[in-house]
TrEMBL record:
Residues 1-19 form the signal peptide. It comes from Denticeps clupeoides. Keywords: Lipid metabolism, Repeat, Signal, TPR repeat. This is Tetratricopeptide repeat protein 39B. The lineage of its organism: Eukaryota, Metazoa, Chordata, Craniata, Vertebrata. Pfam families: Iml2-TPR_39 (PF10300). The gene is TTC39B.
Length: 595
């Protein structure tokens, strides 16, 4: 089926190639012509159409058909190259397998090379300003404009894939990614777009170009606005910070166009609202906007697994866990080509059951992940053991698992990607070390601690009954620690963890003064903490957010700045810095309100 549609398209597109004036082409593409016979050229319009077809195949779960359609032309046509490398990059990001990441990286390199052949040698702005007046070169110019956009997109893809490997981003530079080059190209493209539009240009190719500019400029502004200053410095973006609102508005405009990239702009916004805001932000996302963006695609691709996945994730964030579970199941049933999408669903289902403290079901999904997904065996086994730690001895024995042995496996499963380990993995390894002793001291509510690591309390907080349930569990743990006849060296750390999590539940239940008391207890115990040094800066940050909620901007800023400036070398430091950056920027923009 895929091959057939590929053939049809190849036949259709050979003829339109003749439209391109060969002489004009030869002037500028002599290099390219040395390598490619004329008959194997594909024109811009057809290549965009095929790329769009491939995108629709992906959205209809026909992943290998999409690849089959793009592959034959992926060395000659920039849109085929871009589409092909995008799908592989997406797959690599999901499987997280070294060989997939390497393969995707190699394909992106090929794609960059393909785009490069179509790019103008001199600076695009220079040459285009002079070309703008010459009518005859319109077609050629369009192809060059698209080459710039595709090239920049490939660079961005490369950067994103590196980001997937390592969220602390320093590998951006180490990997030698020319993220600044990509940004500069987008800015040039934006300039060119305004030039051409001012001249009254309006063609299908131009609208497609516009879609690309909005996607790129929007994504860049949004991405850079998320980065704390110290990371921007490392990226040599000195004195520059993206404008979040401008980025969001560009993406909104991009999503509203009828271009190939409209859905990519929509997906970028969806990803931002449903994941980035939660993990690297304060957890305040605009779900209304996410729902509005997804709506048209729900009708167009009712069985599309990516669409179903987002609609399920939105239900999670709304605190509607039953609906979410049902949607994730639908998503799993929708396709079987890409098992990785099942893994994403398992991960989410595991959390849905954890929020409701349905530990046996949560365990089932943790086990599935551990068995099937390669993303991070260390995190999965830790997660499994953490969930089992929440169950009664009798329930654990029914699973046939040995919790202590599972914790002992964590360190051995550590993986390195591009020479770096994943922060959450390092955290799990450090926590699991307790079990290397002959008579281990059990971790206290480890599954709830992991929930906090992934900012799960701001999700479960939307569901008061579930939050009450968690509070009861936390208070039981608190009671046990207080009455423990033989406290260990870990007791103060455990008590602080319990207070932090208790404070979070109380905050979401609207009991703000009690929450403040819990957080203050952690801060008062700072000197007694021996291992979990992350607790203090994270608590300062949470206390800051609590003051923000109460309308005390000055106090909120003071606590969050304290967390930012006075602590270092603790677990998940860069994750907190992202959240701090998001909190401080929202404090700067939020009007001073009275409680
Ligand atoms: C969320 O997005 C919608 C639609 O874009 C907008 O009307 C609304 O003001 C936004 N809400 C917030 C809180 O930003």
């Amino acid at each position: 089926m895929g091959l057939c549609s590929g053939c049809v398209c190849v036949c259709v597109c050979v003829c339109p190639c003749c439209h391109l004036s060969t002489s004009v082409l030869q002037d500028c593409f002599e290099d390219a012509f040395d390598q490619i016979p004329v008959a194997s050229r594909m024109d811009l319009k057809t290549s965009i159409e095929e790329c769009s077809m491939a995108l629709n195949l992906v959205l209809n779960n026909k992943f290998s058909e999409a690849l089959d359609l793009l592959k034959p032309w992926s060395k000659e046509s920039m849109y085929h190259a871009l589409g092909y490398s995008s799908i592989l990059a997406m797959q690599a990001a999901m499987t997280f397998e070294h060989k997939d990441i390497q393969a995707a990286m190699a394909t992106i390199k090929d794609a960059l090379h393909t785009c490069q052949r179509f790019r103008k040698k001199s600076s695009m702005v220079e040459s285009l300003s002079s070309l703008v007046s010459k009518q005859s070169s319109d077609r050629l110019k369009e192809e060059e404009m698209h080459a710039e956009i595709c090239y920049a997109e490939c660079l961005l893809q490369k950067a994103t894939l590196t980001f997937v490997q390592d969220e602390n981003m320093i590998s951006f530079i180490k990997g030698g990614i020319k993220i600044r080059t990509s940004y500069q190209i987008y800015k040039d493209c934006q300039h060119v777009l305004s030039l051409v539009e001012a001249r009254g240009g309006d063609s299908e190719a131009l609208r497609q170009f516009e879609g690309g500019v909005k996607l790129g400029i929007g994504t860049f502004n949004l991405m850079l606005s998320l980065l704390p200053a110290r990371i921007l410095r490392l990226l040599e973006f000195i004195g520059f910070s993206g404008n979040r609102n401008f980025g969001l508005s560009q993406l909104r405009e991009g999503a509203a166009t009828h271009s190939l990239r409209a859905i990519l702009s929509a997906f970028t916004l969806l990803f931002y609202h449903t994941y980035v805001c939660l993990i690297l932000g304060t957890g305040e996302s605009n779900l209304t906007e996410a729902e509005t963006l997804l709506e048209p695609y729900l009708h167009k691709f009712p069985k599309g697994s990516l669409i179903l996945f987002y609609s399920a994730r939105i239900a999670v964030l709304r605190g509607n866990f039953d609906k979410a579970q049902q949607k994730f199941q639908e998503c799993i049933l929708a396709q079987h080509q890409w098992r990785q999408i099942h893994h994403l669903c398992y991960w989410e289902l595991m959390w849905c059951h954890s929020f409701l403290q349905q530990w046996e079901q949560a365990y089932k999904y943790a086990e599935l992940l551990y068995r099937e997904s390669r993303w991070s065996k260390a995190i999965y086994v830790y997660q499994k053991a953490a969930i089992l730690s929440m169950m009664s001895d009798e329930e654990v024995s029914r699973t046939g698992e040995n919790v202590v042995e599972l914790f002992r496996m964590v360190e051995g499963l550590k993986q390195r990607l591009a020479g770096k380990s994943i922060p959450t993995e390092k955290f799990a390894i450090r926590k699991a070390r307790r079990y290397s002793a002959a008579t281990p001291v059990k971790l206290v509510i480890p599954a709830l601690e992991m929930m906090y690591v992934w900012n799960g309390f701001s999700i479960v907080g939307k569901h008061p009954d579930a939050t009450e349930g968690l509070l009861i569990t936390i208070e039981k743990a608190e009671e046990q620690l207080c009455t423990d006849p033989s406290p260990s060296e870990y007791t103060p750390d455990d008590q602080c963890l319990v207070q932090l999590l208790k404070g979070l539940c109380l905050k979401h239940l609207g009991r703000l003064l009690q929450a403040e008391l819990c957080f203050s207890q952690v801060l008062a115990s700072e000197k007694r903490i021996r291992y979990d040094h992350y607790l203090v800066p994270f608590t300062l940050y949470e206390l800051g957010l609590l003051y923000k909620q109460q309308g005390d901007v000055a106090k909120a800023t003071r606590f969050i700045e304290d967390a930012k400036l006075n602590y270092k070398d603790y677990s998940m430091e860069s994750r907190l810095h992202f959240r701090i950056h998001a909190a401080l920027s929202s404090l700067k923009t939020s009007p001073v309100s009275t409680p």
